[in-house]
Amino acid sequence: MGETTSQGPSAELMVDLIISLDGYASAEGWPGWWGLEGPEYLAWLEEEGKKDYAFLMGANTYRLMSSMSDEAAAEGSGFSEEEGASLTGLAAVPKVVFSSTLRAPLTWPNSELVAGDAVEAVREMKRTGTRPLSTLGSLSLSRSLLAAGLVDRFRLVVFPVVTGSTGRERIYDGYPDVALEMVDSRTFDCRLQLLEYVPTILDGPPGNR
Fold it and tell me: Was domain 3-208 assigned CATH 2.30.40.10?
C-alpha cells in the first residue's frame, strides 16, 4: 500500500512549482515564466501573495530570489511592473531558509535560517504550527519533503512550452513513485494550466502488489 502524505491536524505543506510541459523549471535564454505570463495568471499570483504562507527554501533559492528582489526594488531594474511587484513583495513575507553554508543574520527581511536537518525541522513546524507552509523553488528540498511524506498538496502551473534543448533543472529526477489525486484545476489566459493534487507515496508500481 502507498503512504498518503497528510499527517493529520497540522500546518498544511504545499509544494508549489512552475514547469514546462517536459518537466523543466527554467530554460537557458528564455525570460521568466517563459514569457507567457498573462493578466489572469498575474492577478492570481497577487491574490496568492496575500495568503498567510511561510515560504520554505534552500540556500541556492535564497541567494537567487533575495538578489532578484533587491534588483527589482532598484530603479531601472529591467523587470516588468508585474515581475517587480511579485519579487519585491517577497521581502515582507516570512521565509525559512535551510542551509549549512549561509550565516545568520540573513539580509533579506523576514528570513529565518535553519542549519539542521530540513525534513525534521519541517516535520516539527507542521506538528506545532498553524501557518500554512509552501516551498519556493528549491527542487531538492521539495523532493526530500515529498519523499518523507510531509507534503499535503502538490501544485503545478504548466507552461505550454517544450524546452528539450535549453531546459534547465529537471524537476522529477530522483522522485519516488507518487499517485496523485486531483483536487483542483484551472486555466489561466487560455494557455497556462494549474493542477493541484493530494500526493500519495507508492511502495512500487500498483500492478506489482
Answer: no
